[in-house]
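Continuing from the previous page...

OK, I double-checked the sequence for DUF7344 domain-containing protein against my notes and this is the correct one:
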Amino acid sequence: MEDDDIWQSVFRALGDRTRRRVLVALSELPNADDTLSVPEDVHEGDRDEATLETALYHNHLPLLEQAGYVRWDPDAGRVGIGDDFEEIRPVLRLLHDNRDGLPDGWV
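Thanks. Re-ran it with the corrected sequence; updated structure tokens here:
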């Protein structure tokens, strides 16, 4: 993928708080083969879990999977690090390291 395409993909993935939560949670997993349970592991009480699950399954996870940032098993409700996650990890690290200067609610 060309550099411009990578940046478009990174910023599209980071353009939504729910997707940021998924990506940050994945970046914090202790082992690369670990997975998250969705929606439970990314739910923060800002909306009911059923609504979040619908948004994840019909919008956010397909987008992140298509970008290669996650691998997703919808039947098991599990999400893991995708083949192209390393493209976005440095940006997540940069945001994390500078979170005090970011607007409230970035994740």
